[in-house]
UniProtKB/TrEMBL annotation:
It comes from Archangium minus. Residues 58-172 form the 3-dehydroquinate synthase N-terminal domain. Gene3D superfamilies: 3.40.50.1970, Dehydroquinate synthase-like - alpha domain. The keyword Amino-acid biosynthesis applies. Pfam families: DHQ_synthase, DHQS_C. Its cofactor is NAD(+); Co(2+). SUPFAM superfamilies: Dehydroquinate synthase-like. InterPro entries: Dehydroquinate_synthase, DHQ_synth_fam, DHQS/DOIS_N, DHQS_C, Shikimate_kinase_CS. It comes from the Bacteria. Keywords: Amino-acid biosynthesis, Aromatic amino acid biosynthesis, ATP-binding, Cobalt, Kinase, Lyase, Metal-binding, NAD, Nucleotide-binding, Transferase. This is 3-dehydroquinate synthase.
Amino acid sequence: MIQFPPGTYRHATDRWGSFKRQCATLPEGALAVVDRTVARLHPQVIKSLEARKPRAIIQLTGGESAKSFKALEQVLVAGLSMPRSGTLIAIGGGTIGDVSTVAAHLLKRGVRLVQVPTTLLAAVDSSLGGKGAVDITVRGRVVKNPVGVFHYAEEAWLCPEFFASLSDTQLREGSLEAWKMVASLDEELFLSYSRRAPALERMVKDARRLKESVCAQDPYELQGLRRVLNFGHTFGHVLESVSRFQLSHGDAVGLGMLCALDVGRAMGITPDEVAWQVEDALHQGPGVLGRERTADLLARAKLKDVSALLSADKKAGSAGELRMILITDVGKAVVRDVSEDVWRALWPAWTQGVRP
């Protein structure tokens, strides 16, 4: 059997079932990183891990604070004695998965990684694709994900009991990310979802399949093919930052998709009827927040700060040009350079909470 070096692209093995049953396969001596809230809501997590005699169990508070160099160092110190054949298991949402992915890549130049997404958002998106990152503060503003790695998980455990404890808000956030992929990659699924909302497990499997198909073609973002997965992220990250991360990532991506539809229309790339169709479906399906939320957030922001955040975005071109994913039709997207005058012209409508 071929052995893949840690971090090499490979299709992650998805395993559905209870955490206790899955944990019975975890190698002894693993390093576990667990979201504190998950540990509190699901006491069997710590008990099941302790039964496998882990090297250490590190509990972190989920959220952007987990994606700091301080949290990363805590995980790295706990894993210093791990062999290169060791396993790091990440149990939590996207931020726990992010810092754990970076740690797994750095420890011994790469150890085995198991992702256990406990939020719908992490299940449909961040727990696969190999990307992990931490944040940096620039001029008092947190810039998301400028320092990171590619390190693919060998397994993902999808445990329904974690999803059963999610709030309506958390379910909406994950659904928005799933609909993002469907709207930009698969017309047939989009139309199917628009007619009847899918069951949660079906949506997770669809989203993971779509993302996996893109990542397999461009595992390390060398060809630009993975950029399509960033639909809604450009202005979504801006809205997250100006809210000081009071706005969740999933909701930010939802509002960012509305901004991207506006930019596409302004540039003549997204037909009006397609933009209305996608926006209406996002309201009727996952329940994207209203445009008034964008207006509330941008009322606190200065144009120069938004420009600084966009110029620091990791998706910008080599000359600093803004590169966005824009929809040409349902299920089809392109990458386009967007000049500052385009989005600045949309600013008045965005700050008023209306369609341009």
